[in-house]
Design a protein that fits this description.
The chain starts with a strand and ends with a helix. The protein is of the alpha+beta class. Helices cover 34% and strands 31% of the residues. It is elongated and about 100 Å long. A hairpin with a 2-residue loop joins strand 9 (115-121) and strand 10. The protein has helices at residues 5-8, 87-111, 135-150, 162-165, 226-247, 254-286, 303-313, 343-350, 373-381; strands at residues 3-4, 14-25, 28-33, 35-36, 50-52, 55-63, 66-71, 80-85, 115-121, 124-129, 155-158, 182-185, 189-192, 207-215, 218-225, 294-298, 321-327, 331-337, 355-360, 364-370. It folds into 4 domains: 3-85, Elongation Factor Tu (Ef-tu), domain 3 (Beta Barrel); 91-234, 2-Layer Sandwich (Threonyl-tRNA Synthetase, Chain A, domain 2); 249-286; 288-381, Diaminopimelate Epimerase, Chain A, domain 1 (Roll).
Length: 383
């Protein structure tokens, strides 16, 4: 059985081991060692990656009690190999997982809610709880969690005997009876967990709860910790500074400045819409019915404005009233109306010449058409 070095010392970055076996496995190579510091995927945490000699370690899984390292290239059975973890990834995972234990322990202690789901990925943590916690309460939990981090409390791990285990009140998603590993954060939490953790809470540095949403009777929160939390703060600070410069406002006042600009935008949009409607009504009132058909093309026109024109001009034209919007390159959307022309039949007839989607009744058709403006105008004008 492979010796799990990450249990004796979670901060081991490099180690030497003997290769017990190496077998091809789906384009990769399944390697088993006498000892390893690579943590296999489990407990909601992804597997460690790194190298074994010159071979890249792509994934690590525990299969039937065996720890299998899936490598990009083969290793020789019986050889001694040097292992090296991707320490940045591993330490970030430890920071995050330990931070989750603090937050889950605080929520359990205060509200009695259980952690019902946990996922630790490259973009942070997702944690589900069995009861609802308000955003204001989560803010208090976040502050308390960072206080515990700053106090640099000890984090210890141990394997109690079955008799000892019965005397502990610990959190666990599963009903466990043997080989149970407990992770204790001094004065905060005691939880069954198989993953590596930091030794003191100060190593976490920072925890941030940045989103929450109700799920049935519970809550799902999204968190960041350690370097990831700091990177998130720095990114948002840079964006806030950029926005403040664009708005000529202090960072503290950017929301008020944005609200003011949005209000001004809405006011201008309202005025502009008034001018647009006035122009449409003028187009409708001045449209001459002398030629028998009304055909107009626009670069861009909303559906409601197309309908406004059609309804306004169609009763005055003997043949057809047609409005198109778009371009020769992208195609055109259209609405066509008539009291005298069987439009469905006409539309079916042009499908042999143009790419047409849409349909309607004999009195009104709408859809999209691909073709040149000149060809479309000549065709519809001949109806």
């Amino acid at each position: 059985m492979t010796e799990k070095l990450y249990y004796s010392d979670s901060h081991i970055r490099e180690f030497d081991a003997e290769v017990l076996s190496c077998e091809p496995s789906g384009g990769r190579f399944a390697v088993e060692l006498t000892r390893t510091a690579f943590f296999p995927e489990g407990g909601g945490q992804c597997a460690d990656t790194g190298t074994l000699g010159d071979a890249e370690v792509l994934d690590v899984q525990e299969v039937g009690g065996r720890i299998i390292h899936y490598c990009a290239s083969p290793l020789s059975a019986g050889a001694c190999v040097h292992g090296a973890l991707d320490w940045g990834k591993r330490f970030q995972n430890m920071q995050s997982h330990s931070a989750e234990h603090i937050v889950s322990g605080l929520i359990h202690n205060r509200f009695g809610f259980e952690n019902t789901g946990f996922h630790l990925g490259a973009d942070g943590m997702i944690v589900d709880f069995s009861g609802f916690v308000t955003p204001e309460e989560l803010g208090e939990i976040e502050l308390a969690a960072n206080g515990i981090i700053w106090q640099n409390r000890k984090i210890s791990t141990f394997f109690p005997s079955p008799d000892e285990l019965r005397r502990y009140a610990y959190r666990s998603k599963l009903s466990l009876t043997e080989n149970v590993r407990l992770v204790e954060i001094e004065g905060v939490d005691l939880c069954a967990c198989c993953a590596p953790h930091v030794n003191e809470t100060g190593e976490i540095g920072l925890v941030r709860i940045y989103e929450s949403q109700r799920r049935k009777d519970g809550v799902r929160i999204r968190m960041l910790a350690g370097k990831a939390a700091l990177a998130d703060y720095l990114t948002k600070e840079r964006e806030a500074l950029r926005i403040s410069n664009l708005l000529s406002s202090r960072v503290e006042d950017i929301s008020s400045a944005a609200e003011r600009i949005l209000a001004e935008r809405d006011s201008l949009a309202y005025r502009l819409r008034g001018f647009e409607l006035k122009a449409l009504d003028e187009l409708i009132s001045t449209a001459s019915a002398e030629r028998g058909s009304f055909i107009r093309f626009f670069d861009s026109l909303p559906q409601e404005d197309m309908l406004r024109i059609i309804k306004g001009v169609a009763p005055r034209f003997e043949r057809v009233a047609a409005v198109f919007t778009g371009s020769d390159e992208a195609g055109y959307k259209f609405i066509i109306a008539s009291e005298s022309v069987a439009l469905r039949e006409k539309l079916d007839s042009v499908r042999r010449k143009f790419t047409v989607k849409g349909g309607g009744s004999d009195k009104m058709v709408q859809g999209s058409i691909i073709g040149s403006r000149e060809d479309i105008e000549n065709t519809v004008g001949g109806w």
